[in-house]
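Help needed: design a sequence for this.
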């Protein structure tokens, strides 16, 4: 019998192998797939994002294929890029069942470097200077993405990984946009983690790098304040606040120079927002250094 493992309350059947990769263990369970720790033929370890068995539909496989191919072969600092995209994979379920996942238009799995560490949402209670460092690294990674015309569109704490050295890495290009188009069809409804969306994203305006600047602004606000900006989770109320209200002033939470940079990253009008991820990173670093917040 295949091994059953509990992860985030879900009982998972754990495959023994996917393609030529041996499955070591599941790492996390996402909306459409499971991320596994796997081992390649050479013994090197990777993370593999594979579709849930019951969700292996053409549309989702196409989206996973597009997600993998968007970063395949790229080397962008502070960004986890795909190193392999499986178009066809034999799955050894470990109970004598052998299945072939085959989808000409899509991919059943993406292979990427394994970042051993935590996501920023888990680190939220840790020291603030560690969180600032992760955010600065994320902005650095975003600047690299924007330079090759990739807009991430889903920057949120669960998509920022922190490795053992404290460096931050961007993951999850499942909602990204590039001149080739959207990874996932945006007509499928409003996507992303509502509390971190830019107002123009909620209004389904064409994506620009400015949406990622705004999402990083939300994270910066939360690190400075030590609390969530939107208390209502993934609800319509959150979307109303995102589009209709400015973020509350941080005047009582942090030095004025820092509050000013964050407020400009959170300008609801993209034309008035800090102009790029790179500029935001520079201004944020300067403000944090001047108030001694970076150790
Ligand atoms: N390269 C990786 N190394 C380590 N953990 C990862 C990696 N990629 C993803 N994860 C873990 O899996 C989770 C889900 O991956 P993600 O790509 O964000 O999928 P989803 O589209 O379901 O949000 C992440 O929040 C993280 O905890
Ligand atoms: Mg994610």
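Sure. Designed sequence:
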């Amino acid at each position: 019998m295949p091994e059953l493992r509990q992860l985030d309350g879900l009982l998972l059947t754990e495959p023994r192998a996917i393609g030529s990769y041996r499955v070591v263990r599941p790492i996390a369970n996402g909306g459409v797939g499971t991320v596994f720790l796997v081992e390649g033929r050479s013994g090197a370890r990777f993370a593999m994002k594979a579709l849930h068995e019951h969700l292996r539909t053409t549309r989702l496989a196409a989206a996973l294929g597009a997600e993998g191919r968007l970063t395949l072969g790229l080397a962008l600092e502070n960004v986890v890029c795909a190193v392999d995209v499986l178009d066809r994979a034999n799955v050894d379920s470990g109970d004598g069942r052998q299945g072939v996942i085959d989808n000409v238009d899509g991919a059943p799995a993406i292979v990427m470097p394994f970042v051993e560490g935590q996501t920023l949402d888990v680190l939220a209670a840790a020291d603030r200077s560690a969180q600032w460092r992760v955010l600065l690294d994320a902005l650095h990674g975003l600047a690299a993405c924007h330079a090759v015309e990739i807009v991430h569109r889903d920057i949120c704490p669960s998509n920022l990984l922190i490795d053992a050295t404290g460096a931050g890495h961007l993951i999850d290009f499942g909602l990204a946009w590039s001149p080739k188009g959207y990874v996932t069809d945006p007509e499928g409804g409003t996507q992303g983690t509502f509390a971190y969306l830019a107002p123009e994203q909620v209004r389904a305006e064409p994506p620009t790098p400015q949406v990622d600047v705004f999402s990083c602004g939300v994270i910066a606000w939360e690190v400075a304040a030590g609390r969530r900006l939107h208390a209502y989770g993934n609800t319509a109320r959150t979307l109303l606040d995102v589009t209709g209200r400015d973020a509350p002033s941080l005047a009582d939470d942090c030095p004025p120079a820092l509050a000013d940079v964050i407020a400009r990253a959170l300008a609801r009008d993209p034309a008035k927002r800090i102009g790029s991820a790179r500029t935001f990173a520079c201004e944020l670093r300067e403000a944090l250094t001047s108030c001694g917040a970076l150790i």
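The first strand starts at residue 4 and ends at 7.
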